[in-house]
């Protein structure tokens, strides 16, 4: 019993730290954009700078998976790495060109509602009446939050919001689908392999659309990319995987409410982003709705 409680406690700690560190990424991305770097190059820097750590950890620690792991399981890891770390990051980085960091985090925060919907579609998990009402309330809150912004920025905000929604959707699909793989590989190796797969996808993407000008950016771009790689990618990726392994995807999603608040606070101090009273009401509605969706009976 004590051991079980200790594992749950660690899961809670990992979930909180992982969410807080991941939420700092949007602010770092917006800061880097001020120095003229494009989204594809910045994403490449982030993944490539993190890659050596994942390779080192993967080969340093002996795998604990058994013969039940074969080519099929590695194929699924590549798919989930493509889905949850490459596609989600790509949509997010591009969308941040059009949105405030705080608003980006609000859209990403709806992923628990998408986890519930995907679980219903794929596994036929029942959606309760309260969950259904909470999902409706959540999306109403998102609409309220963006209403003022649409009036000022117009189509660019709508496009950016759509891209961030795609990021939330692909991340939710990753959470729903990857849970059964983590016990087979272990948290460390699953995360390392998934990040390696996503880095391969990022490099291939850059080969087709990149400009191959790696060294003409100000030093601040490289420093921010390294910070993103270590503090907003490497460390939280292990923390999130460990939290999911101990708590499950549904329970882990409860702690996501910390993300929007911390991002809004960081964006206020580092980016001077302002949130109107109406937008703050919408944010609180979204947090309430998502918390209700994530709550267990």
Brief description of this entry?
The protein is mainly α. Helices cover 81% and strands 0% of the residues.
Description:
With 297 residues, this protein is mainly alpha-helical. It has one domain. 81% of the residues lie in helices and 0% in strands. It is built from 14 helices and no strands. The chain has helices spanning 2-23, 25-33, 39-60, 71-95, 101-108, 111-123, 129-153, 155-178, 182-185, 187-209, 219-247, 249-254, 258-270, 277-294. Helix 1 packs parallel to helix 13 (258-270), helix 2 packs antiparallel against helix 11 and helix 6 packs across helix 8 (155-178). The longest helix has 29 residues, at 219-247. It is globular. The mean pLDDT is 87.
Defining key terms:
297 residues; mainly alpha; 81% helix; globular; EmrE-like
């Amino acid at each position: 019993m004590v051991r079980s409680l200790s594992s749950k406690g660690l899961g809670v700690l990992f979930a909180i730290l992982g969410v807080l560190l991941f939420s700092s990424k949007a602010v770092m991305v917006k800061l880097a954009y001020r120095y003229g770097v494009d989204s594809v190059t910045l994403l490449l820097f982030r993944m490539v700078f993190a890659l050596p750590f994942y390779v080192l950890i993967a080969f340093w620690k002996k795998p604990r998976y058994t013969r039940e792991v074969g080519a099929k399981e590695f194929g699924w890891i590549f798919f989930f790495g493509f889905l949850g770390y490459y596609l989600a990051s790509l949509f997010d980085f591009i969308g941040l060109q059009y949105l405030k960091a705080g608003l980006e985090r609000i859209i990403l925060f709806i992923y628990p509602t998408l986890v519930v919907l995907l679980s219903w579609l794929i596994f036929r998990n029942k959606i309760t009446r309260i969950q259904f009402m909470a999902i409706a309330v959540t999306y109403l809150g998102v609409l309220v939050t963006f209403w003022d912004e649409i009036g000022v920025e117009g189509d660019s905000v709508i496009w950016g919001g759509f891209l961030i929604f795609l990021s939330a959707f692909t991340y939710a699909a990753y959470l729903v689908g990857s849970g059964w793989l983590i016990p087979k590989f272990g948290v460390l190796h699953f995360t390392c392999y998934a990040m390696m797969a996503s880095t391969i996808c990022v490099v291939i993407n850059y080969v087709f659309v990149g400009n191959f000008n790696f060294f003409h950016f100000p030093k601040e771009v490289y420093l921010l990319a390294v910070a993103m790689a270590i503090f907003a990618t490497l460390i939280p990726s292990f923390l999130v995987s460990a939290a999911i392994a101990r708590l499950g995807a549904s329970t882990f999603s409860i702690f996501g409410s910390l993300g929007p608040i911390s991002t809004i606070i960081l964006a206020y101090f580092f980016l001077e982003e302002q949130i109107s009273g109406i937008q703050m009401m919408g944010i609180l509605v979204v947090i309430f709705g998502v918390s209700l969706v994530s709550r267990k009976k």
